[in-house]
């Protein structure tokens, strides 16, 4: 059976008006969503605002399918571009489900919730960080060991992109190879 590729996009929400999502991140997220949809991929997000809404809008405008993994129990919390709203009632713990659903992950901008999702994805899912979008995406290379590892053992590797096109191409290529964050992750999960 040939199933579509699921690309989870993690990124900064717009829940705090004192900490807005950079405009550049929103534009790039919308482009990422469009490109995923044009390749017949399915967009998976946390279903709410900010980067999640922008990537969802881009995918919907290109005729794509969007899945939103919501933190609460009310499907009405999903942004208007979500086709399939999955309520979890798990709060921030839904980050694990959002990431584990993916064949590959793309990180755009990001605050503390996005950083949490990145650490969940690190060993299990190939992850592409779209640099230049603010937040953790623009700082991760300086904090990571040798710019690409979240652990000293170098169990897995982060990948970096400079444009939405590069991010989507890398995510699909990594997903096609069936890669995880680390080669042996399938043994444990």
Short note summarizing the structure:
Helices cover 38% and strands 17% of the residues. The chain has 189 residues and is α/β, with parallel strands linked by helices. It has a seven-stranded parallel beta sheet, with helices on both faces.
Keyword list:
disordered C terminus, Rossmann fold, 189 residues, single chain, 38% helix, 7-stranded parallel beta sheet, globular, alpha/beta
Structure description:
There is one protein chain. By secondary structure, the protein is α/β, with parallel strands linked by helices. The protein contains 7 helices and 7 strands, in the order βαβαββαβαβαβαα. A 7-stranded parallel beta sheet has the order 4-3-2-1-5-6-7, sandwiched between helices. Helix 4 links the parallel strand 5 and strand 6. Helix 1 runs parallel beside helix 2. The longest helix is centred in the N-terminal third of the chain and has 16 residues. The relative contact order is 0.17.
Secondary structure elements and pairings:
Blueprint: E1 6-11, H1 23-38, E2 42-45, H2 51-61, E3 65-70, E4 84-87, H3 94-100, E5 104-108, H4 112-122, E6 127-130, H5 135-143, E7 159-161, H6 164-176, H7 185-188
Parallel strand pairs: 1-2, 1-5, 2-3, 3-4, 5-6, 6-7
Helix pairs in contact: 1-2, 1-6, 3-4
- What is the typical, i.e. mean, pLDDT? 93
CATH topology value: Rossmann fold
The CATH level-2 architecture is identified as: 3-Layer(aba) Sandwich
Highest CATH level, the class: Alpha Beta
Cα-based radius of gyration, to the nearest Å: 15 Å
Structural class: alpha/beta
Total strand segments: 7
Gap from first CA to last CA:
22 Å
H/E series, N to C? Answer: EHEHEEHEHEHEHH
The major beta sheet can be summarized as: 7 strands, parallel
Instruction: State which percent range the strand residues make up.
Output: 15-25%
Q: In total, how many domains does the architecture comprise?
A: 1
In what order do the strands lie side by side in the largest sheet?
4-3-2-1-5-6-7
Shape: globular
Uncertain segments: 183-189
